[in-house]
Amino acid sequence: MNNKSIFLSRRKFLQGTGVSLALPWLETFAVGKPSPDETAKRFVSIYHPDGVGLPLKKDPAWKDWSWFPRGGEKDFQLTKVLDVLEPLRSEITIYSGLSHPVARKVHGHSNADQYLTGAPIGGHGPYQNTISVDQVYAEKAGAFTRHASLVMSTNGGVGGPRGAQTQSFNREGRPIPAMNKPKQIFDMLFVTSGKDAAARLARSKSALDLLIENTRSLGRELSKRDQDTLNQYLDAVRDTELKLVKAQKWIDTPIPKVDTRNLHLDAEPKEARLYFQTMYELIYLAFLSDSTRVATFQLGRENGEGPHDLLSRAVGLGAAHHLTHEVKKPDGWKNLGTYNRYQAEEFGRFVQKLKDTPEPNGKGNMLDNTFAMHGSASSSFHLSRNYPIISAGGKNLGFNNGRYLKFGKGNEDNQAGAGIDTDAGWQGKVEVEELPLTKLFVTILQRLGVETDSFGGLTGSLNI
Amino acid sequence: MPKLAKNEKPPMKPLKIAFLLVLVSVSTILSADGQVIPISLEAAKEQGRTKSRFLKETKVTAKATDEIPKANLAYFQKSVMPILKKSCINCHGPKKSEGRLRIDQLNPDLLAGPDVERWRELYNAVSNSEMPPENEPGYALAETDRGSMVDWLGEELNKASLIRRNTKDHSSFRRLTKYEYDYALQDLLGLPYSLANKLPPESVTEDGFKNSSELLQISAMQFETYREIALKALKRATVSGDRSPEAVTYIISMEKEMEKAAAKKDTKEAVKGKKNAKSPKNQQQLLDQQTGESIPFPAVKFAPKAGAVVGQTPAVSPVVMVLPSSSELKLDLDRFLPDEGVMRVRIRANRSNMNPDEFASLRLMLSAHTSNDANFSQVISQRDIPVTSSADNPQFIHFDIPLGDIQRNPFRKLTTTYPRRDEFLHIQNVSNASKGEDRLSVLIDYIEISAPFYEQWPPKTHTNIFIESASKSDENIYGREVLNRFLARAWRRPVTSQEVDQFMGLFAKYRPGFSTFEDAMVEVLATALASPEFLYLTQRVSADKSKSASISEVELASRLSVFLWSSIPDEELLKLAGQGKLRKPDVLAGQVKRMLADPRSKRFSQNFVEQWLGLDGLNSVTHIPPPLKDAIQEEPIAFFDEVLRQNRSIMDFIHSDYAVVNEKLAAHYGIPKVYGPHFRKVPIAVQMNRGGILTGAAILAMNSDGKDSNPLKRGVWMLKRILHDPPPPPPPNVPEVDLTNPEILKMTLKERIADHRNKAACISCHAKIDPWGIAFENYDALGIFRASINNKPVDATSELFNHQKLAGIDGVKRYILTDRQDQFARAMVHKLTAYALGRPLSFADRADIDGLTSQLRQHDDKLGDLISLIIGSNLFNSK
After folding, report:
1. Interface contact flag, A26 B538, Cβ < 8 Å
2. B198 contacts in A (CB within 8 Å)?
3. Residue A110 is nearest to which of B223, B374, B527, comparing CB atoms?
4. How far is B354 from chain A (nearest CA, A)?
5. Are residues B424 and B486 in the same domain?
């Protein structure tokens, strides 16, 4: 018997009375008191639509152009798709066998919507999403920075239900519009003065003053017992006041000056390389200046036309989405692999830059304090299983890299759904066992300092 | 509603007494051939009533479960202490104190002593067989010893928690719940749709209530959400400018559509639009009823008509859109609907026949299909509207949809055409017509769609706030007028001039930042709606010492409206309270009658029944298809509403010889000849195995595991919700029934439960719970009656802790009606009073609850009377 059980039973008791429902709301509000010695912990997620190349073993393209590495946890070999990351081998981890259980039989075209949320959005009818993992962390990390999160995508906006153009969803499950114009993003981060915000703040401040006065005079007319209840309201108002003070502080704090040499603020997706690098550079600068600690960037939109389809021009190829439909044509696997390789290359460049930059207020380099995730929610053609995910960094958060981690059972060689280019794939029976991706999310959140043991209604983390 | 003087005892009808005398304490009667035939459940009601202690005695002491518990120290000394000495104290005592635990020093009085948490640990460790350790055979506990220790501890812990909950003095001072806040805002501002979805859900008390002061907390985030919602709602209610903004209006005349399609004869569409004179008249198509010509509805994009006026009544046309049952008219409205404002959809429709057994209603849906798999569709109408008119006199049906609140096509403003920008409005015919050449269709000849739609300019919601006044030109005077009126309505009391001054001060600060008076004032009013005077149900300390225990008249007005309307009082209630007349018995009785007759009282039936029965449990149930689920969820509410409005006995909740169902549910239950979506009272035969709420599919389905019944859940539900005798919560880490054990797999469900129950740690609770649940075994996970499971006959007989045998659900009803009427009546009084007061009841309230129960029983257990009794009670009028 130890003291733990007391806490367990208390917790049980709280759950029994239903208080647990109210707790997330109480907890999500943290008044920012950045302790000076705390190093920034960062999270960034890069999403690419259309999945990756997954040829069958017997296919001659398998050796070079299958996305997943071969070999074991430490001695894995990267194929031509990911070999650009070889110099960063000790900084990255590659995952297989993870997916969201509720999405395994949903058409891959709706995958961007659920990648960071794990919500059961289904294929048609009414649409309801839930909060994404980046926003769960932003609720905490946002207390320390000017912007709670930086949400970007090549297409911008929210997209349509089941065709999201953002990875980020708020607590109500509503999509957070993504920014896609480098100039606007730069202005938001490093130029905007916040004149309107100051006026709004001043109004709020007067309103709160009045409410406090009004509440006090009500309190004088209540019994002692009822005054205690009313004090809870007063506390809520005072916490809000503190938040205003913090917001005011940001208005008064000069906007950081950053090195703009690598920025091409007029770049557009059709100038793919320049655009990618500029967007990554903006994330880098936002992190470096501690303007935010959370960023998401979606490289396109699942299916259909749009600016993202032009990104594959960077490697001299045609429309990006089409590459996945043409894997069986001559050089098909190679072309898709080449495009994925290019995505990995740009991600690697960003990771390298974080690694080369010492942490401004802490130990090690910026990468050590950043969990950077790169992935898609489709492995093969429209198949919402076995998500191809790479993560980088996070050493100081407790992540050990240089590993290829295989989860689940029955698909050790990543052949389930391989070689398919018809819809028989995503509609097919789930034959192999995979772990919920939410387990990785829980691990990430815990290591970023969010106290939780579940995400999206699923409990458990990964022991990695 | 009868008069409600206290302690009034209506004289019993002499006839009834004679009848009862025959039946007293005989639960069965002998038939001619000597066979024992159980009496009917209706007769059991009469018989059980004679046993009521509440009717016999003037002062009734509460039933055993409601007495103030006392610690059972005698049992501890006699039976538990010897076991502790033998198996525990050597390691947790004076010699060694492992885990810093000295069991010998723990106070065995868990109710008054300080060691409850330590005892709870002990209880967990012993009931889970963690202690004594397996590797200490010398201290091993015999199963019977473990059993008596666990039983004693379980009971004492339960009593301790009862004491902790019930001795605390609770106040009715609380904030409004999410749903009350939502209704309050709607009623205050005159906006007919939900506004508060952004607020978090409420926590639920152990009794199942969401409106209980003990759990209604507030966080900073919630406070900010209140401000945000209030501002948004006020902006919706008010307008600016002298004229209404230009509306986007679509006019769709079926006659014109047919003409247009016919004019395309020579084009490609002519193939599609070919006139087809022979097509049956119940196909979906455009039909000229005079010529009999018909064509499919053309797939066209509709464009708004510039300068069109809504609310027209063109001559009725013979050309109609035929909408057969379960079909829909899908209109491509392109990309022109505005972002905000109300969209009015006005449809002229009639029925194709007047067959009284066939019903049809219209429903609206909005959808978009932006690229191949990116799509959505959502029902946007709040309720289906029935089509009742004949062809001679078609009716206009209209829907008002808040465009800012529904899922829209996010691409509608693109300058390019892909992803697609169109939004589709679907008009659906929801109907029960299914067979026959002449089956019911809905015929539509004319449709208007317009947004933003205003009934008048400026709208009433606006002039309700920005009232007409001679002093409109003087912002200082007019501002005070607006504030005076608004604050008094929102805060449900007269306001002082100092309070108005405060808000005028805020207005003065805001005014320079806004171009109009109204814009600045709206921000000020939003602040008033974030004040505790709006958000909380206040009860002020009275300056007059003689009245210090009572709430004031205006507070009574709020308590009444929150009880019966889940919202704030209207002007009539406030006026009467302001004049000090509300508490006069005849005025109060009149107001209660008026309030129950008002449609807002439906909220009472809904919210009380949902919380009383725990209908939220249905939300997590996935094994019922949605249309049936809606009907299942509605049934107990409709049943309660029927009992309330007919002022029937609450014993009808246990059993009734009628059901309140609609067609969907009647089909589910096998009740014939019920047509249409509305709920109504229908007589039922005994062999239908329904009646009352216990056998409603809602209760049975939510207390199942998705595939089969769950007797444990059903038993717990009975004890908590109906008998108000909740079992203690299960100990942590209860062992799951091991389904990998082949021996267990062989057992029937009842045997499995018995096997689980036979474990020492589980037996005492389960003996109280399981028999109630097993008696429901004749009902499956959907609430369908069954006589056999896997070809074996259902065994729904069980025996209660007190050796009372229950023969299935009939036995449960019979037993409650014969022997436990008082307990159920008191439970009902307890639940309704806790809900009415918005606070947990404590031991101090026992006498009042007993008194109310006594009165209820004297009023023949009538539900409507009970509402009035509660409202007239001291409890309801006290702080």
Report:
1. no
2. 172
3. B374
4. 33
5. no
Answer yes or no: do B267 and B372 share one domain.
yes
Within-domain flag for B368: yes
- Which amino acid, residue A276? F
Task: Give the mean pLDDT of B165-172.
Answer: 78
CATH code for the domain in which residue B408 is found: 2.60.120
Q: What is the mean pLDDT of residues B815-830?
A: 95
Residue listed under structure tokens 């369908």: B784
State the pLDDT at residue A254: 86
Q: Which residues constitute the domain of residue B113?
A: 73-167
Of all residues in chain A, the one with the smallest CA distance to B125 is A1
| Highest mean pLDDT of the ranges B97-111, B181-195, B797-811 | B181-195
Answer yes or no: are the C-beta atoms of A393 and A368 closer than 8 Å. Answer: yes
User: Does B97 contact A at CB distance below 8 Å?
Assistant: no
Contact status, residue A346 vs residue A280, Cβ threshold 8 Å = yes
Q: What is the DSSP string of B114-149?
A: S-HHHHHHHHHHHHTT-SS-TT-GGGPPPHHHHHHH
Domain total of chain B: 5
Chain B residues within 8 A of A163 when measuring between CB atoms: 370-371, 373-374, 419
- On whether any CB of chain A is under 8 Å from the CB of B55, the answer is no
CB contact under 8 A, B203 and A19: yes
pLDDT tens for residues B432-468?
A: 998 788 899 999 999 999 999 999 999 999 999 999 9
Nearest residue on chain A to B503, judged by CA atoms?
A: A210
Q: Which residue of B has its CA nearest to A213?
A: B502
Q: Which of B482, B507, B536 is the last residue of a domain?
A: B536
Question: Cis peptide before B280, with omega less than 30 degrees from 0?
Answer: no
Q: Is the pLDDT of residue B6 over 90?
A: no
ipTM of the complex: 0.83
Helix (H) or strand (E) holding B799: strand B797-799
- Asked if the bond preceding B636 is cis, omega within 30° of 0, the reply is no
Q: Which residues of B667-696 are buried (b: 16+ CB within 10 A; e: fewer)?
A: bbbebeebbbbebebeebeeebbbbbbbbb
Number of cross-chain residue pairs from A and B with Cβ atoms under 8 Å apart: 208
Claim to verify: residue B144 and residue B291 sit in the same structural domain: no
On whether both B370 and B440 belong to a single domain, the answer is: yes
Does A37 have pLDDT greater than 70? no
Phi, psi torsion values for A316, nearest 5 degrees: 70, 20
Closest CA to B208 of B646, B827, B776, B875: B827
If pLDDT is split at 50, 70 and 90, which confidence band does B70 have? confident
With respect to residue B693, please indicate whether it lies within any of the assigned structural domains: yes
pLDDT for A99 equals 97
The pLDDT of residue B2 is 44
Collect all residues of chain B within an 8 Å Cβ-Cβ radius of residue A8.
732
Q: Which of A318, A323, A279, A317 is nearest to A303 (CA)?
A: A323
3 state SS of B683: strand
Count Cβ neighbours within 10 Å for each residue of A62-71 and write b for 16 or more, e otherwise.
beebbbbbee
Locate all alpha helices (DSSP H) within A289-377, ordered by sequence: 320-325, 332-356
Residue in the block written with tokens 């209140």? B226
Task: Judge if B59 and B95 occupy the same domain.
Answer: no
Tell me whether B377 touches chain A (CB under 8 Å): yes
- pLDDT band at residue B734 using 50, 70 and 90 as cut-offs: low
Query: Nearest CA to CA, how far is A415 from chain B (Å)?
Result: 26
Q: What is the pLDDT of residues B109-134, one digit of tens each?
A: 988 888 888 888 888 778 767 788 87
Which of B114, B145, B167 is the last residue in one of the domains?
A: B167
Give the CA dihedral B175, B178, B184, B187, nearest 10 degrees. 180
Inter-residue contact B640 to B608 (CB < 8 Å): yes
Say if CB B227 and CB A37 are below 8 A apart. Answer: no
Question: How far, CA to CA in Å, does B230 sit from each of B34, B226, B339, B847?
Answer: 72, 6, 20, 42
